[in-house]
Amino acid sequence: MRNPLGKLALVSGAAAAAFTLATAPAMALVPTNWVVGPSSPENFTAKSTNVVLSINGIDMTCTYSDAAGSLHSATGNPAAVGTINPVHFGKTGEPCTSFLGTVNTVANTPWTLNVTNYTAATGVSQGYISGVNARVSVATCAFTVTGTAHGTYTNSTGDLKVAATPTELTVSAPTAGCAGVVSAGDHPSFNGDYYAVVTGTTTKPTIVGS
Q: Hey, what's the signal peptide range on this chain (predicted)?
């Protein structure tokens, strides 16, 4: 005689498996084709009013920073879709500051803009800037910052939002005046919003991944 409990268990198991398959999220596709608009290649300029380099509790703030470079369509993942060259921090009459005094930063460029993911619904690309290299001087202390900085780019606003975590950037070659303040191997954070436009226009460049 067939066991009715066994038959019930079999039916229940099959139903549960079917429900799991039906409700499992579809695997996201990794973008490998990146198209820059309105055309490729495209030169851009960008400005920021809120750049902050923070290290060991010391905020070095820039209310003015600008950058320029070029964007181009690319394939792959990650894909290098842009070059940043040059980038400036502060300007005459509006320097970067900290409680230690005026901050001078000389960026060694080019830096490379890489993309890894894209959300079509929001027009936002995720990625990182590689090749970051800058010499920072404040008071009697000078040091070099190198590494990468993750961030996002939003097509609708032209906002390149940089939000480097404290493990992505590393300090090297500090001078004697940095003793007790900044040391080799320290990891600063770097945050800011750069608003980009196609050079000489008000048009925002776009990056679309598929």
A: 1-28
Could you list the residue range(s) of the whole structural domain that residue 182 is in?
A: 31-209
Which tokens in the block code for residue 58?
Answer: 């010391």
Given a contact cutoff of 8 angstroms between Cβ atoms, the answer to whether 133 and 143 are in contact is no
**Cis? peptide before 78, omega within 30° of 0:** yes
For residue 94, list its beta bridge partners: 91
* Phi, psi for residue 109 in degrees, rounded to 5: -110, 170
Enter the DSSP assignment of 177: G
Q: What is the pLDDT along the chain (210 residues), one digit of tens a residue?
A: 444 434 434 334 444 443 333 333 444 579 999 999 999 999 999 999 999 999 999 999 999 999 999 999 999 999 999 999 999 999 999 999 999 999 999 999 999 999 999 999 999 999 999 999 999 999 999 999 999 999 999 999 999 999 998 799 999 999 999 999 999 999 999 999 999 999 999 999 999 999
Contact 156, 204 (CB under 8 A): yes
Contacting residues for 101 by C-beta, under 8 A, at least 6 apart:
138, 139
**Beta strand 206-209 pairing with 33-37:** antiparallel
Cβ atoms of 43 and 68 within 8 Å: the answer is: yes
- How do 124-138 and 111-119 pair as beta strands? antiparallel
Please report whether residue 97 resides in a domain.
Answer: yes
Residue 168 in domain: yes
Which residues neighbour 56 within 8 Å (Cβ) at sequence distance 6 or greater? 181, 182, 186
